[in-house]
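chain below, 319 aa
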Amino acid sequence: MKKVLVTGALGQIGSELVMHMRNIYGNDNIIASGRKKPEGAIAETGPFEMVDVRNPQEIADAIKKHKADSIVHLAAILSATGEKNPAAAWDVNMNGLYNVLEVARENNCAVCTPSSIAVFGPSTPKDNTPQETIMRPTTMYGVTKVAGELLCDYYHSKYNVDTRGVRFPGIISNATLPGGGTTDYAVHIYYEALKKKKYTCFLDKGTYMDMMYMPDALNAIVDLMEADASKLIDRNAFNVTAMSFDPEEIAAEIKKHIPEFQMDYDIDQDIQQIANSWPNSLDDSAAREQWGWSPKYDLSAMTQDMLDELSKKLNLQYK
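prediction:
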């Protein structure tokens, strides 16, 4: 039975992953951590440690206290936020990962940390983007993710640390709001559709990006952690995706359920520039072949579930 320290446990993915993993591995075996005290289910169901990943001693103390054998490292500053403060993005994303890997090396821990489609750049092939291809990102977040993949590869080859990672697309959740990513519109649009029947999109028509519904993202992390190590060739750079759409397509899907929904545009040129540098769609065949990756949700199924769950959460009827 794994005993896992989760950094960044109060973020968009972490807050749901902790509960998902506690259901699988047991409450006491998943140690949440972050820089502020938690509330609600995370605080009530299992252990929590105050950990700033820029401080390696805090990571090491949490590992030793709970005798953890694995780390899921989620603490990071995302793309749009990172462009506002590139120095902070480098500090948290790179120094934090280095500290996690060093503690893992010293304590014989496995490490699973997500990368991102942000590793790609304008010179990357846009459609069915290969896993192995040119990566010259134009954001600090992307730079840290490319360097992070390479650093994880290094710790695996040099020190035999069991490192694993997926390149996540945009993550859409019905439980938690996103935290400053380029793909955030695909979450906000559902809230605004239910609350106001309209949404102003900060990305332009025809801006295709890969996306994934949160339940698939959670399964991807657990499935990769549980995968047979002997079958993992790529380890820290698996493309994973579930769907690719542009703002018009998600709006059209919402209109099937809320016919009066309307969307207009007010383009944020800084975020649009980031989105334009990313692929339209990914080739995730390596993940499917090496550890059985298979998403359950497409745009239609996700939209149905998002509207159902958010209508309960917001106490709003849409049918």
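Residues 86-107 form the longest helix (22 residues). The chain has twelve helices and 14 strands.
thats it, cya
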